[in-house]
Amino acid sequence: MKLSMKTNNPSCEFDPNDDKIREECGVFGIFGMENAASLTALGLHALQHRGQEACGIASFDGEKFHSERQLGLVGDNFTGADPSERLKGHISIGHVRYSTAGQTTLRNVQPLFSELSTGGFSVAHNGHLTNAYSLRERLVEKGAIFQSTSDTEVLIHLVARAIAGEFIDRFIGAIRQIDGGYAFVCMSNEMLIGARDRFGIRPLLIGRIDDCYILASETCAFDMVGAEFIREVEPGEVVAINSDGIRSFTAFPNAKSRPCIFEFVYFARPDSIVGGKSVYEVRKRMGRRLAQECPADIDVIIPVPDSGVPAALGFAQELGIPFELGIIRNHYVGRTFIQPTQQIRDMGVRLKHSANRAMIEGKKVLLVDDSIVRGTTSTKIVRMIKAAGAKEVHFRSASPPIKFPDHYGIDMPTKEKLIAANYSLEEMTSMLEVDSLGFLSVEGLYWAMGEEYREDDAPQYTDHCFTGDYPTPLIDRDRKIGSSNQLSFLVEVA
């Protein structure tokens, strides 16, 4: 097989003012459609919120693999000429990515591709392998040569070294060696493959257009391409799609469902359905419960756009207090606009958000956001609201306090930089310069999900950011903590 590759390398800046948690990526794949790459580009448009640093599409036309990986947005790279004209084929996979920090290097942009003894193999990955460094170290000792610093490449080497058998058996043997939270969408010269970790931490769904099957991170991607949602890939399941249809394999027989609860708090698009639940409705219920747990004597409720809007609506409806758009978001500020001077960085929040003075001046304002991470952006927004003439400013988080870092594919600061992990509620109230501060309880979050939180039992969701209950061993992290020698490099998440 031959691989034709097109790349581009524009500069891509990290925005130091952005205090939002970031999902590293979204994945999409389709089998059996002649213009597969075109539908993949559309699907990635719908998943753009899951990663804005880089994007890529790979396809197979029956004879040759094609791949195009770019830095930047899908719309900046895969619009204009029909992508299927240069990325021909009836199989295609795609990926959108957000880097952990600094510049995204092109060699880490996905889908990754390699020629194996069985033919071409391309991989797109959402998540993080918690034993990636340990596996990589072992593979390098055995002579493996890595082309990227992405943990995703570990899978390629494991598949390449798997014992003989059908390709799908080699793939299953490979993923049984990895741990963490992941959703893989892969492509060989015969089939489209989807795989989900044994706890279902990272999402992966199956859709269909006529006889063509689709894999995607969220249902909003199916809506974009006019596909019917069929079902979720089950925790620990591998699906193989070819011209004969779809086959299901159980890679982990004792799999237990514990999907990431942050899909509901922040990551998923409001119009997506996750686990049979409307993300929008769950977020409104978070706001309702937050109003019950943390009411305040206020005049107006204002969301921090855009992720705070559903919860703020629920809060306002529960208390019967006016909801207003007191903060207007500028959607046309690119990441590269941020300039390398501290004075401009300090003004960065105003580039993205502007106070709507008419809704604020002389009023007791309550701000609702989806979460509070370091608190830096929250403080700047509070100051902006005060500068617009607010009489009082109160702040509410529609999620519980984030006290523990993530290790499953979420770009999150270390515990030392998480404000709720290091300060009391009173201290945080003072640091954010607000009249009052409140967080949704863990019990309230589960209530919003329609579940009951059982502290003495295994949780129904992966909620470690709030509780510290990690569902899998954190092998690489524990090695770093227990070793006196600093690791020579860090493996980047997908």
Could you characterize the architecture of this molecule?
The protein has 494 residues and is an alpha+beta fold. The chain folds into two domains: 3-258, Glutamine Phosphoribosylpyrophosphate, subunit 1, domain 1 (4-Layer Sandwich); 279-453, 3-Layer(aba) Sandwich (Rossmann fold), CATH 3.40.50.2020. The strands form six sheets. The chain has an eight-stranded mixed beta sheet, with helices on one face. Strands 7-8-9-10-14-15 form a six-stranded antiparallel beta sheet, with helices on one face. β9 (180-188) and β10 form a beta hairpin. α4 (132-141) crosses α5 (152-160). The two termini are 26 Å apart. Mean pLDDT is 88; it is low at 1-17, 335-340 and 483-494.
List the helices and strands and how they pair.
Elements: E1 3-7, E2 22-23, E3 25-31, H1 36-46, E4 54-60, E5 65-71, H2 74-77, H3 83-86, E6 91-97, E7 112-116, E8 119-129, H4 132-141, H5 152-160, H6 167-175, E9 180-188, E10 192-196, E11 205-209, E12 212-216, H7 219-225, E13 228-232, E14 237-242, E15 245-250, H8 262-267, E16 273-274, E17 277-278, H9 279-293, E18 300-303, H10 309-319, E19 327-329, H11 342-346, H12 348-352, E20 353-355, E21 364-369, H13 376-387, E22 392-397, E23 410-411, H14 419-422, H15 425-431, E24 436-439, H16 442-448, H17 464-467, H18 475-482
Parallel strand pairs: 1-5, 18-21, 21-22, 22-24
Antiparallel strand pairs: 2-23, 3-6, 3-12, 4-5, 4-6, 7-8, 8-9, 9-10, 10-14, 11-12, 11-13, 14-15, 16-17, 19-20
Helix pairs in contact: 1-7, 4-5, 5-6, 9-10, 9-16
